[in-house]
């Protein structure tokens, strides 16, 4: 329910609910609603409603150069969002949608420059979450939704993560439980019809290559990101996170002051009680699903810093290492 209008931002009594029709009501009115997906929670708004889109940027404190992902529920509806679907994009879409794959395709006139940050391509995907698919099937507009967190911070993988950071700023969080994949979508664009990975994510590289052959992975850069998910410093906790740099970590902190994110075995340099094993079974899918909530737990704990080990460089280990690297401090 709306209560106070404070400067330009409305203060809401944020509800956490499974009421899909209520979410539709808010979205139709031009408000933002947090929605569950298999990757992370999204901050959704009507993609055809410029003021609603502007609210996403305001709520997230997101710079305007960081474009949004548009979500829909069918390849049929995709035709009003994009003007062209290259053959290999269609192959990927047919194979992996609904799923953690975002495609960069030429935008139609219905998609505003605010959504694409002035780029000629729009990022689109069909997410794989039953509640959000049900929601999308009842809407006559697509939704734009970046991750539902303040810009630069760790993405939310549970309704509670969203509530902690966006309470009062949005009317509703659609409660779809914990995110099953737990890491953002893989983003694929096309250069001269050749597929290129702009952001590693929840879809393993090997699965993509099986579908369309070997493809280039763009390095992230902080200067001129084609895709701001490419920013070098992103997905970061407030505490210093050392990624695979034991000497810098132990030069600055005592072992007992440090929380550790490890894969399947404890790191002998730190007390075991301060360590989180993302998957004692050694399963990278499980590790990815646990990554962001573990980073948040350590960020909120009394420990002073975070040390993260590097993960195996294949499957979702690639995306885990990418996020940890961008969350980390870089000391010369
Ligand atoms: P988020 O959902 O918060 O991870 O943000 C969406 C991300 O999608 C952005 O940070 C960009 O990396 C990427 N993205 C969205 N639209 C485009 C586009 N047109 N070109 C390149 N990257 C995009
Ligand atoms: Mg994000």
Describe this structure in words.
It is built from eleven helices and 17 strands. The chain is an alpha/beta fold. It has two domains: about 200 residues, DHBP synthase (Alpha-Beta Complex), CATH 3.90.870.10; about 90 residues, Rossmann fold, CATH 3.40.50.11030. Helix 1 packs across helix 6 and helix 10 runs parallel beside helix 11. The longest helix is centred in the C-terminal third of the chain and has 17 residues. It is globular and about 55 Å long. The N and C termini lie far apart (about 50 Å). The N terminus is likely disordered. The chain binds adenosine monophosphate and magnesium ion (MG). Adenosine monophosphate binds next to strand 8 and strand 12. The site of adenosine monophosphate has 21 residues, from strand 8 and strand 12.
Main traits of this protein?
332 residues; alpha/beta; four-stranded parallel beta sheet; 11 helices; 17 strands; 30% helix; globular; disordered N terminus; binds adenosine monophosphate; binds magnesium ion
Draw up the topology in text.
Layout: E1 2-6, E2 9-12, E3 15-17, H1 20-28, E4 33-35, E5 42-46, H2 50-60, E6 69-71, H3 75-78, H4 87-96, E7 101-106, H5 113-116, E8 121-125, H6 130-138, E9 143-144, H7 159-166, E10 172-174, E11 186-191, E12 194-199, H8 205-212, E13 216-217, E14 240-243, H9 246-252, E15 258-262, E16 275-277, H10 284-300, E17 305-308, H11 316-327
Parallel strand pairs: 3-10, 4-10, 6-8, 7-11, 12-13, 14-17, 15-16, 15-17
Antiparallel strand pairs: 1-2, 4-5, 5-9, 6-9, 7-8, 11-12
Helix pairs in contact: 1-6, 10-11
Bound molecules: adenosine monophosphate and magnesium ion.
């Amino acid at each position: 329910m709306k209560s106070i209008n404070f400067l330009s931002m409305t203060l809401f009594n944020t509800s956490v609910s499974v009421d899909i029709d209520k979410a539709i009501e808010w979205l139709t009115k031009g408000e933002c609603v947090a929605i569950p997906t298999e990757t992370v929670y999204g901050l959704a708004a009507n993609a055809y409603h410029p003021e609603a889109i502007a609210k996403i940027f305001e709520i997230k404190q997101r710079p305007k150069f960081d474009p949004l992902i548009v979500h829909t529920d069918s390849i049929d509806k995709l035709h009003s969002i994009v003007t062209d679907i290259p053959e290999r994009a269609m192959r990927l879409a047919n194979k992996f949608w609904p799923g953690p794959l975002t495609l960069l395709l030429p935008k139609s006139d219905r998609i505003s420059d605010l959504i694409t940050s002035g780029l000629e391509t729009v990022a689109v995907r069909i997410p794989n979450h039953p509640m959000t698919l049900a929601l999308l099937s009842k809407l006559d507009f697509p939704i734009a939704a970046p991750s539902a967190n303040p810009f630069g911070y760790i993405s939310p993988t549970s309704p509670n993560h969203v509530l902690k950071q966006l309470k009062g700023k949005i009317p509703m969080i659609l409660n779809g439980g914990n995110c099953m994949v737990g890491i953002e979508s893989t983003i694929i664009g096309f250069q001269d019809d050749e597929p290129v990975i702009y952001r590693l994510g929840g879809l393993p590289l090997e699965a993509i290559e099986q579908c369309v052959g070997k493809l280039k992975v763009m390095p992230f850069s902080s200067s001129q990101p084609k895709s701001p998910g490419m920013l070098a410093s992103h997905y970061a906790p407030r505490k210093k996170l050392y990624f695979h740099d034991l000497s810098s970590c132990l030069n600055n902190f005592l072992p007992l002051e440090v929380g550790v994110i490890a894969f399947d075995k404890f790191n002998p340099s730190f007390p075991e009680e301060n360590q989180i094993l993302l998957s004692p079974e050694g399963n990278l899918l499980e590790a990815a699903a646990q990554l962001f909530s573990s980073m948040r737990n350590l960020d909120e704990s009394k420990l002073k810093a975070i040390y993260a080990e590097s993960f195996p460089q294949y499957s979702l280990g690639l995306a885990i290492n990418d996020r940890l690297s961008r969350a980390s401090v870089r000391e010369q």
